[in-house]
Each structure stands twice: as structure tokens, then as C-alpha cells.
Amino acid sequence: MTELEAIESALRTAPMRPLKATLVRCVALLPLTAGGAPDFLFTSGQANRYNPVGVRCVYFSEDEATARLEYARRFGASRGAHQPLGIYFAEVNLTKVVDLGDAATRDAFKLKAKDLAATWQLAKRPIRTQLLGLVASQGTVAAIRFLSDAARAVGARGFNVVIFRAGVQAPDHVEILGPTKKPLQKWP
Fold this sequence. Notes:
globular
């Protein structure tokens, strides 16, 4: 059995949970607004911890402190760390979430601590968490919840959530909050 087949098999029986929460994202403001109106649910298709190249997804944090730590980790002490920030919030209601904060769920996917902290940026092929995201993103799962490495690095505990565009199907939704009851942007 290949690694992808093992993940597909585990996904059929792994514990899933719903997620109804307000999530937050912290990004550089200028790219967010470069096209005129901001695209809060922009999916670049670039690789990240839980997705290989080509997967349409967006990353959020469960709280603002974690979102800011994730931003700071990305830019470090570089000049980009001092550019204007865009911080925004999303109300999410998702029925099928893989919660890697849960030991039974990690065990179902045979994920060890080293898998969760693996360096993906220079990997020659997708790492295990990216393969999990690839399989999950095929429309069977709305999101993966996972511990923030940026928070852990400073001795804090925080969680991130990667939401897959193909997995957000009505009645599930992601709504970017604005000044009125009408969302600024939403999936689906």
C-alpha cells in the first residue's frame, strides 16, 4: 500500500469533528489589496505545511496572537516584518474537520511529532502532512486543525486551521466578517 493509499484508507475511518468558530488571519496588507478590492479568500496554490502545490486552500489561526506569531515567523526580522498588516476574521461552520490536536486522530493517520514538525520548504517531494492535505482537499474534508509551530517556538500553544475550497460545500460556510451582517466574502 502506498502512502497516499494509506492516508485515503485512514481518512475513511478517522475521527472527524465539526468546527464552528471565529478564525483570524494576519497577512501583508499590500498584496491583499493589490488588485483593488481585497480577496480575503485568495488561494495561491503554492505549497505550505498541509498542502502541496496546486491545492486551493487558505490558512487561518484560532486566535489573533497565534495569527501574529505566524506572520512574524514568516517575515522574521526582515524589512517585510514592518510593512502594513491586514488582520481579518472569518466565521466558519464546517462539519468535517480533521483535528490533529486530538491524539486519536493523529494515531489514525500514524502521524508522529517529527511528521508534524517536518520542514516542507526544501523537501524534494511532498511531506506526510502535505499528502494528508492533498487527499483531504479532494472534497471529502473541509479543513485540518493543527498545532502552530510558530506558537510552540515561543513557548505558547495555538492552533491553525487550513480550509480546503473543494471541501466547503453547503451547508458548510466560511464568511469574512465586515461592518454589517453581510459578509465581505464567502465560500461557497
